[in-house]
Amino acid sequence: MMMIFEERIWVLFKHKWQHTLTYWSVFFSFGLCIAFLGPTILDLRCQTHSTLQQITWVFFSQQFLLLIGSCLGGLLKRTQLYSLTSLFLSTLLISLVFAFIPLCNNVAMLAVAMAIAGTAMGVIDTIANLQLVKLYQKDSAVFLQVLHFFIGLGALVSPLVADPFLADDNCVKNGTETSSNLHHLRNSLAGKGTVLHNVSHYNLHTQGMVTTNISYAFWIMALINLTVPVAVCVLMYRERMFPCLSYSPRLLEPDPRASRTHPETSPADTDQDHRDMFNCCNRSNLQDRPPSFFILHGLGGAVLFITDGIIGSFAGFVYTYAVSSPLSLHHKTAGCLPSVFWASITAGRLASIYLSYRYTAVKLLSVSLGGVVIVQSMLLMLHSSTVFLFLGTCLLGLCISSVFPCMLALTEDILDYKGCATTVLVTSASTGEMVLQVLVGLVINSQGSYSFPLSGMIAAFIGFSFFLLFLYCRHVYRNYHTDPSKTSP
Predict the structure, then answer these.
(1) What is the pLDDT of residue 393?
(2) Over the stretch 253-306, which tens digit does the pLDDT of each residue have?
(3) Residue 180 CB coordination number (10 Å)
(4) Taking CA atoms, which of 151, 161, 399, 434 is between 20 and 30 Å from 34?
(5) What is this structure's pTM?
(6) How far is 347 from 406, CA to CA, in rounded Å?
(7) Which is nearest to 110 in space by CA: 63, 36, 57, 162?
(8) What is the pLDDT of residues 341-381, one digit of tens each?
C-alpha cells in the first residue's frame, strides 16, 4: 500500500514538476527576504545615520505590510494568470528592493523599501500556498512540507551571505562602543523581529564617517533572488500566458495517468476552479453553510495565530532571556540560540516531508502541538538550566516546524479546497507572528525575563486547546454532510 502511495506521489510530481519547483523557489525568495534584516540592522543603522529606536521601526513596517500583503494575495488568486503574474511581480520587487537598500541614506527610505518587500512577501505567502494546495489537493501535505522547508533554506542562506560583510566594530567612527557591545546588540536584534523598547537603553552615535561593506551583501542577494522571477516567467511562458509567444503546448494538458488520481488536469478546468475559488466567499455560496463551516475557519486560523506567534516571539526574545538572570549566559553563547532554533525548524520540515505521507495530518498535528506544550512546560520548570534551554530550543523547533503546512492541508481538505481557508490561515499566522511578539515583549519588559517561558507555556496550552476544539468541530461538520436530512440531494 505504501509503495502504491509513493508511486502516485511521484507520478503527480513528474506531471507537475515545473509548477511545483516554481512555487518552492518563490518561498526560497520569501525566506531570503525575511531573515536578512536582523543580522544587518546595525550596519543599516550606520548607513542611514539613525538611532536604534528609529531603525527598529523597519521591522514593524516589514511585518505590518506582510500582513496586508497576505490579505491582498487572497484577492489576486482569481485565475492562474493573476496568481503567476502576482508571483512574478512580487519576486521581482524583492530583487529590486535588495538592490535599492544600499541607496537608502535615511531610515524613512529604508522603511518604505521594507514595506514594499513585506507586501510582496505577504502576496507570495498566500498565493504559493494556495496554488500548491489547489494543484495537489488531497496529496498536498507532502508538497506543502517541502514548500515551507524552502523558507528555512532561504532564511539560512541570507545570514550566510551577509556575514562576511558585517562590520566587526562600530561602523560610525565617531562612536566609542566596543566590539563586544556591538556583538551583543547584533545578537539581540538577530531574531525575526524585535520590539522598540527592547533596545531603548542603547544610545549609539549617528554622526561620523560610515565604514560598512553591507551593500555588497544586498547586491549578491539581489542577484541570487533574480533567478526566482525568471523561473516564474518561464512557467508563464510554458502555460502560454504571453499572447505573442504561445507556440509551445501548455504544461498541464490532460494526462491519463494523473487523471486517475486527480480529475483537475485540464487547463480549462484549472482556470474554472480558480474562478470558483474567487467566488467561494460570496454571500450566495455561504447561505446554506452550517455554523461549523465558519468555526473551522476561525479555529484553524486561531491555531496558526498562536503557533506562528510562538515562533516569532521565541526567535525574537530567546537571546534576551538567555543573557538575563538567572541564566546570564555570555552574549556569544546566547547568540547561538536563534540559529539553533531556525536550524531545528528547517530540519523538522525536512523530516516532515517523509512523515507527512506516512502519517495523517491529524496525527502529526496532535504529536507536534502536544510536543510544543510539553517542551514549553519543561522550559518553564527548568528555567535555570542552560543545558535544557539549548535542548528545549532544538526540540521546540522540531515540534512546531510542521504545524503550518499540516494545518493548512487538513483545513483545506475538510472544506473541499475552495481556497478561502488558505487566505484566512495565512493572514491569521502573519497577524499572530506580529501581535504575539509585541505582547511578549511588553510582558518581558514589565514583569522580567521569567515571564518569557511562562508566556510560551500559556500560548502553547491555548493553541492545543484550539486544536482540540478544531477536531470536535471537524467531527460536527462531517456529521452534517453525512446526515441526509441536512444535505440537499
Answers:
(1) 93
(2) 544 444 444 444 444 444 444 444 445 555 555 666 778 888 998 999 999 999
(3) 12
(4) 399
(5) 0.78
(6) 16
(7) 57
(8) 888 998 998 888 888 878 888 999 999 999 999 999 999 99
Q: Is 142 exposed, middle or buried (0-12, 13-18, 19+ CB in 10 A)?
A: buried
Q: Which long-range contacts (CB under 8 A, 24 or more apart) does 258-265 make?
A: 258/11, 258/12, 258/15, 258/16, 261/8, 261/11, 261/12, 261/139, 262/12, 262/136, 262/137, 262/139, 264/137, 265/15
Neighbours of 173 (CB within 10 A): 12
